[in-house]
TrEMBL record, chain B:
A GO biological process held by the record: bacterial-type flagellum-dependent swarming motility
Superkingdom of source: Bacteria
Cellular component, GO annotation: bacterial-type flagellum
Family: Belongs to the flagella basal body rod proteins family.
Domain Flagellar basal-body/hook protein C-terminal, residue spans: 87-131
Family annotation (PANTHER family): FLAGELLAR BASAL-BODY ROD PROTEIN FLGC (PTHR30435:SF2), FLAGELLAR PROTEIN (PTHR30435)
Record-linked Pfam families: Flg_bbr_C (PF06429)
Protein name per the record: Flagellar basal-body/hook protein C-terminal domain-containing protein
Length: 110, 134
């Protein structure tokens, strides 16, 4: 595998890093997605947004039930709200990271 | 399945313990029901919990069914009672209040334990997300 930082040799003391073979996978994945075009980051973002939207719909439904007195289990709503908050945080974090990376590329001196 | 599985699994545990609490409260509410000897006594409600699935990776617990205790109850000699039979006996449910209180504590503690899991899992996920915010 050709690495962009192939010229930079690691200090021999950090040989333990060789054991972390899993790190090779992401860059391979990026290569593939870049070639595939459609299956790139956009589709990942879209699917996670759809999942988030489903969670928010569930949470909203339970909130309505709580307001109308139809809620059978208090913990159901609390867990759904909790899960929605976490999912929102996650999608926003991923989005921010992606935009940050894109901006970083835009700033690259040509 | 999904990213935040442990929340759903703890939710199923909460549901089972809530139903157990319901059963115990039903038992305690009906503990002093008196019936005549030609009728069934109030039957103790028992909840049977079961793992959702073994080995398939889907976690969680569910209430498989409700079992019922003895319909015979306890025969008590109360000749003055309006429901007493010719021999002066009435039926009381065969429920022990001490046992019900123990079950109440177990159900409550189980509920709290599942809530603690929800809390810790949320904190752990949030810590993981903090990694991306730096």
């Amino acid at each position: 595998m050709t690495s962009p930082i192939g010229g930079i040799s690691f200090p021999s003391a950090v040989t333990g890093l060789a054991g972390v073979t899993g790190t090779a996978a992401p860059s391979d994945a990026v290569d593939r997605t870049a070639a595939a075009g459609d299956n790139g980051f956009a589709s990942v973002l879209v699917s996670s947004l759809e999942e988030l939207q489903a969670k928010q719909a569930t949470s909203d439904g339970l909130a309505v039930q709580a307001a109308t007195g139809d809620l059978r289990d208090v913990h159901d709503y609390m867990i759904a709200a909790n899960e929605t908050k976490l999912a929102t945080d996650m999608v926003v974090t991923i989005k921010n990271k992606a935009v940050e990376a894109f901006n970083e590329i835009l700033r690259m001196p040509v | 399945m999904s990213t935040f599985d442990s929340l759903g699994i703890s939710g199923s545990g909460l549901l089972v313990h809530r139903k157990w609490l319901d059963a115990v409260s039903d038992n305690i509410a009906n503990i002093n029901n008196v019936t005549s000897t030609d009728q069934d006594a109030f039957q103790e409600r028992l909840i049977v919990a079961q793992a959702v699935d073994y080995g398939s990776g889907e976690g969680g617990v569910r209430v498989a069914r409700a079992e019922y205790g003895s319909a015979e109850g306890r025969m008590v000699h109360e000749p003055d009672h309006p429901l007493a039979d010719a021999n002066g006996y009435v039926r009381y449910p065969d429920i022990d209040l001490g046992d019900q209180m123990t079950q109440l504590i177990m159900a409550q503690r189980g509920y709290q334990a599942n809530l603690a899991v929800v809390e810790r899992a949320t904190t752990a996920y949030q810590a993981a997300l903090q990694l991306g915010k730096g």
